[in-house]
Every structure is written in structure tokens, then in C-alpha cells.
């Protein structure tokens, strides 16, 4: 991974000690620490002040209200001293309900003296500090896992929180279930003329384009997944997948593994959208892509995504547009 590419992976940044040893501590003790801080999560969003993640003291009115009915997840300890959290402060996320969200935001705004809002990581992640981007990403990924694993897969029995939010437990058998992450590849495909292949997904507006991507199947290597997914979605055969880097994408629970691959020797460049997931495919030179973005004819992924990082790695610079 080149230094420039690593710097583009805005959700891979972290400045928090995940402090696995403290996960055995009851969550109430971690929340009750004098220097403890909490992040409020609601419906996949976090409470923010502009692009700054709001870290509330546990004694703040909003945090107390949220703690009464929501659930808490321990994230770790701060690695740097900051005005809103001292070095080594335990940081947790409080996942709150729809009913609590409005009052929690009002109470937090009153306590802080600022106008606060519920922020989207996809839109804000690239502009957040390293600490805040890492906390938000970790908190959202863990919260999304809890949302999906409320019941034991085999028995259907309800599971309970354990290890400060890092495990769910079948209360009857004691069987533990740990967080899962779905591996997905995403590929910048180039041809002999160094054009880049972009596709438009059926769920997007027609002018929105990104790279081809897909989940890794059971028993499949990452490289094999690259070759398979590109062919399934475009009809193009690729070779020599080259790994670039990875980034968590907690929407809801993916780890995106970035690659570059070239059209295989002897293979054609004629594209065949699958017609279900991918509706349109385009080969673009750097000049064509820059012109389409500048004219507003084509929208690219936002700067928080690894897709954008791979596109700009190929392009050789910042494309400027951030319309997602």
C-alpha cells in the first residue's frame, strides 16, 4: 500500500486503544468512571457538532436518559489528551431508541451550548479527526452486529450482552457469539489502454458510478473472488489481482478489501452488465472521467469510501467531486 493510498482510507484511521482486557469489567463500572465519555448512536447516526463527534460525560443529562433504556458498548480508551476526553478515558457508545433521540439531542445541545445534529459516517468520515472517525466506525460496526444477533442462530433463543458489548450469550446454554465481519472485494479494473471500468448499480441514480465489488464466498480466496465478481457483473475476464489495502465499511458489517486488476491477455473489453445488479458499464480515460465529473454528468463515491480511494489512486490525484 502506498503512503498516499493509505492516507485516502479515511475510515481505516484509529486513535483508540481497544483495551480488550477491560471488556471483562461490568459496563456500569466503565460508564461510572469519573473520566468516562459516551457517544450517542441512533438509527446508524451519531451525535455530532459539525464534523466533531460529541463525547459526553456520563453525568450529562442526555447520557443519563439514554442509559436508562438503551444499551451500552465499550469501545476502548483514548490515546491522546484532548479537551473533551483526557488521555486514557474510557469511551463507550450508547445505542438509543427513536423515542429517546430527540430529547437526547436537545439535552446534549443544552449541556454543550452548541447546535448538534445526528451525523452520517459516510458523509462525515473523511472530514473527521483520526480519533473521531475511528470511534464512529467501531461503534457503528459493533452496534449493527448486535442488531443482527439478538437470537442464537441454531436454537432461536434470545441472547444477552456480555463482555461489555463484545459478545452475545445464550443465557440457557452459555454459548457465546462473537462479532462477525463480512469480507468483500472491490476492484479497479483497467485495460491495455489504462482505462478504468466503472459501473452503475440498479439501486442508484443513473448518473452514479463506482467500482465493481462483491462478497467473498465460502471457501474462496480474495483473488478468486476478484476474478469471479468482475466477470459476473461485467462479462470481463481479469488477471493479476493486486491488493491495495482495506477499510471497514459498517453499512452494515463489511470489510472492504481493495484491489487493482487488469483485463486478462487475450480477453475482450466488451462489457455485459448483468442487468440485475449492474445496469450500465463504462470504460473511461482519466481525461474523460475528469470531464464527466466536472460537468456533473457522472457522480463518484464519496471521500469516505475505499472506492473513491482506489479511483483517485488510479487517477493520480483528487477528483474534487463529493456528491455522495
UniProtKB/TrEMBL annotation:
<dbReference type="GO" id="GO:0046872">
    <property type="term" value="F:metal ion binding"/>
</dbReference>
<dbReference type="InterPro" id="IPR000086">
    <property type="entry name" value="NUDIX_hydrolase_dom"/>
</dbReference>
<dbReference type="GO" id="GO:0006742">
    <property type="term" value="P:NADP+ catabolic process"/>
</dbReference>
<dbReference type="GO" id="GO:0019677">
    <property type="term" value="P:NAD+ catabolic process"/>
</dbReference>
<keyword id="KW-0378">Hydrolase</keyword>
<dbReference type="InterPro" id="IPR015375">
    <property type="entry name" value="NADH_PPase-like_N"/>
</dbReference>
<keyword id="KW-0460">Magnesium</keyword>
<dbReference type="InterPro" id="IPR050241">
    <property type="entry name" value="NAD-cap_RNA_hydrolase_NudC"/>
</dbReference>
<dbReference type="Pfam" id="PF09296">
    <property type="entry name" value="NUDIX-like"/>
</dbReference>
<dbReference type="InterPro" id="IPR020084">
    <property type="entry name" value="NUDIX_hydrolase_CS"/>
</dbReference>
<comment type="similarity">
    <text>Belongs to the Nudix hydrolase family. NudC subfamily.</text>
</comment>
<dbReference type="InterPro" id="IPR020476">
    <property type="entry name" value="Nudix_hydrolase"/>
</dbReference>
<feature type="domain" description="Nudix hydrolase">
    <location>
        <begin position="179"/>
        <end position="306"/>
    </location>
</feature>
<dbReference type="GO" id="GO:0110153">
    <property type="term" value="F:RNA NAD-cap (NMN-forming) hydrolase activity"/>
</dbReference>
<protein>
    <recommendedName>
        <fullName>NAD(+) diphosphatase</fullName>
        <ecNumber>3.6.1.22</ecNumber>
    </recommendedName>
</protein>
<dbReference type="InterPro" id="IPR015797">
    <property type="entry name" value="NUDIX_hydrolase-like_dom_sf"/>
</dbReference>
<keyword id="KW-0479">Metal-binding</keyword>
<dbReference type="GO" id="GO:0005829">
    <property type="term" value="C:cytosol"/>
</dbReference>
<dbReference type="GO" id="GO:0035529">
    <property type="term" value="F:NADH pyrophosphatase activity"/>
</dbReference>
<dbReference type="InterPro" id="IPR049734">
    <property type="entry name" value="NudC-like_C"/>
</dbReference>
<dbReference type="Pfam" id="PF00293">
    <property type="entry name" value="NUDIX"/>
</dbReference>
<keyword id="KW-0520">NAD</keyword>
Amino acid at each position: 500500500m502506498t503512503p498516499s493510498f493509505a492516507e485516502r482510507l479515511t475510515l481505516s484511521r484509529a486513535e483508540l486503544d481497544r483495551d480488550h482486557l477491560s471488556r471483562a469489567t461490568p459496563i456500569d463500572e466503565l460508564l461510572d468512571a469519573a473520566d468516562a465519555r459516551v457517544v450517542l448512536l441512533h438509527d446508524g447516526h451519531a451525535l455530532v457538532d459539525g464534523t466533531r463527534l460529541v463525547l459526553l460525560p456520563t453525568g450529562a443529562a442526555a447520557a443519563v436518559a439514554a442509559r436508562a433504556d438503551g444499551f451500552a458498548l465499550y469501545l476502548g480508551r483514548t490515546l491522546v489528551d484532548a479537551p473533551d476526553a483526557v488521555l486514557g478515558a474510557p469511551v463507550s457508545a450508547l445505542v438509543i431508541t427513536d423515542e429517546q433521540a430527540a430529547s437526547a439531542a436537545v439535552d446534549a445541545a443544552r449541556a454543550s451550548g452548541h447546535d448538534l445534529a445526528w451525523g452520517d459516517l459516510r458523509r462525515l468520515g473523511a472530514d473527521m479527526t483520526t480519533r473521531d472517525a475511528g470511534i464512529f466506525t467501531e461503534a457503528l460496526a459493533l452496534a449493527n452486529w448486535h442488531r443482527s444477533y439478538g437470537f442464537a442462530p441454531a436454537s432461536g433463543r434470545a441472547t444477552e450482552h456480555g463482555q461489555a458489548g463484545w459478545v452475545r450469550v445464550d443465557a440457557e446454554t452459555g454459548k457465546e457469539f462473537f462479532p462477525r465481519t463480512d469480507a468483500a472485494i472491490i476492484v479497479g479494473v483497467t485495460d491495455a489502454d489504462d482505462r478504468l471500468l466503472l459501473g452503475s448499480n440498479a439501486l442508484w441514480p443513473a448518473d452514479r458510478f463506482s467500482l465493481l465489488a462483491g462478497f467473498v464466498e465460502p471457501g474462496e480466496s480474495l483473488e478468486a473472488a476478484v476474478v469471479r465478481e468482475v466477470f459476473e457483473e461485467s462479462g470481463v475476464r481479469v488477471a493479476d489481482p493486486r491488493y491495495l489495502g482495506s477499510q471497514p465499511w459498517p453499512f452494515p458489517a463489511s470489510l472492504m478489501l481493495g484491489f487493482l486488476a487488469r483485463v486478462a491477455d487475450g480477453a475482450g473489453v466488451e462489457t455485459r452488465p448483468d442487468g440485475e445488479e449492474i445496469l450500465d458499464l463504462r470504460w473511461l480515460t482519466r481525461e474523460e472521467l475528469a470531464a464527466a465529473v466536472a460537468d456533473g454528468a457522472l457522480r463518484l463515491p464519496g471521500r469516505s469510501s475505499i472506492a473513491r480511494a482506489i479511483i483517485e489512486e488510479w487517477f493520480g490525484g483528487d477528483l474534487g467531486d463529493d456528491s455522495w
